[in-house]
Amino acid sequence: MIKKFIRKILGVKKSGHLASDHATPVILSAKDHGINPQLVSANAIRVTQTLQDNGFKAFIVGGAVRDLLTGVKPKDFDIATNATPEQVKRLFRRAFIIGRRFQIVHVMFGQDLLEVTTFRGPSDKAALTDEHGRVLRDNTFGEQHEDAARRDFSINAMYYDPASQTVLDYHGGIKDIRKKTLRIIGVPEERYREDPVRMLRVVRFAAKLQFQIDDATRAPIAVMAPLINNVPAARVFDEMLKLLTSGHAMACLQQLRKEGLHHGLMPLLDVVLEQPMGEKFVTLALANTDARVQQGKPVSPSFLFASLLWHQVLEKWEAYKAAGEFPIPALHLAADDVLNRQTDALAIQRKVAADMRDIWAMQPRFEKRIGKTPYKMLEHQRLRAGYDFLLLRCASGELDEETGTWWTEFIEGDAETRERLINTKPRTAVAAGGVKKRKPRRRGPKKTAAAQE
Predict the structure, then answer these.
(1) Calculated CA dihedral for residues 364, 365, 367, 373, nearest 10 degrees
(2) Out of 67, 78, 138, 290, which one is annotated catalytic?
(3) Per-residue pLDDT tens for 290-309?
(4) Catalytic, out of 76, 161, 238, 388
(5) How many angstroms separate the CA atoms of 436 and 371, rounded?
(6) One of 67, 138, 152, 290 is an active-site residue; which one?
(7) What angle do CA 135, 152, 195 make, to 5 degrees?
(8) 342, 352 in Cβ contact below 8 A?
(9) pLDDT of residue 2 exceeding 80
(10) How far is residue 16's CA from residue 190's CA, in Å, rounded to a whole number?
(11) Does the pLDDT at position 436 exceed 60?
């Protein structure tokens, strides 16, 4: 009561994302929002209906609603409900409670996974945080309008009910979608301090949706960017992977640089992009990734990160060779240096790192096109990835196009074609990073025993 009286006298405003004027949503009918019901997952409808039939509130929420409002079929459907995780789990045969920072339920239908969360309440002041204010654990449940206030951006704080085909909009998300504006809910500094990964999400959504970042949302990012270093590396890796597989990877990286968020995430990336050959290589790699995403094809994290870090490996490889190391050991040492450095910034999984090493280690072997070596390469389990990587090197000008053409014909050819290619003398030009075969030493006439004496 005393706090309310002081606010009334002094005119102190409430915290932006918990203000009472956001307690009542704007309700949009099917005519108002124009969502096509055919784009809604049958399993998402099944989950919401099951929860509603058992007396609970249940809505499709977040990015799925945002995508539906823009006419895009969502990849994932998240559900928000007032049922607790334990209550949700009891209603579905294949349901699993996961999460430490905030508990959620994974409901499985075959290979289809739906994430069900309980409405979150205002962050508890007693919630566990680190010394920088990042929330480490917070399982406070609440009302729907409080849950909306806890979400990151206005465009992700809308709730769709498939049964009534209505959308509940608490923070002007529909207006921001129509204005193509990305706006964080509440006080930006507070929200970024709670979870610094939100700064990376700003970049990803702005690039993916081609939205403008609201001035107030952008302003603190440059100063607060170092807080990313306090986030567990595994979370940063997951967010970077989402960013790079968004279908707008190059735009995301450019936005990262623009907002000053790239330092520490991809060390030396600026150096790579400032080198003509490096920039062309990375641009081609990311364009290839974007094309695969847009065609609905899978993307290999190993190939993607191997491409982004290749010119760092190449630079160190050349340095080790210049210091006297033999080419193959030099390449392995270069790979170790780059991966060890990246592990501190990005928790690159062991399997991903191993595949990256394989892709890099195959590159010198593509230069050996004689004898049984090419046939052994056909048996390599990472051949396709290594070959695609080789083609990128050729397309960027790092290698002669003839090398890529030769391997394309060899991989696709029959036994006769392969034999002909093996017997065809390759051109002598050796590109950057290749291994030039030493010429045999010319020997003089054999000396007689008398001459040797």
Answers:
(1) 160
(2) 78
(3) 999 988 888 999 999 999 88
(4) 76
(5) 16
(6) 152
(7) 25
(8) no
(9) no
(10) 10
(11) no
- Catalytic residue flag (residue 414): no
The b-or-e profile of 119-158 (16+ CB within 10 A means b, else e) is bbbebeeeeebeeeebbeebbebbebbbbbbbbbbbbbbb
Q: Catalytic residue at 147?
A: no
**Pseudo-torsion of CA 364, 370, 371, 377, nearest 10°?**
40
Instruction: Answer yes or no: 21 catalytic.
Output: no
For 64-114, how does the pLDDT look when each residue is reduced to its tens digit (9 = 90+)? 999 999 998 998 999 999 999 999 999 999 999 998 767 899 999 999 999
Structure tokens at 2: 């005393």
pLDDT by residue (tens digit) across 241-286?
A: 888 898 998 888 888 888 888 766 655 566 566 667 778 898 899 9
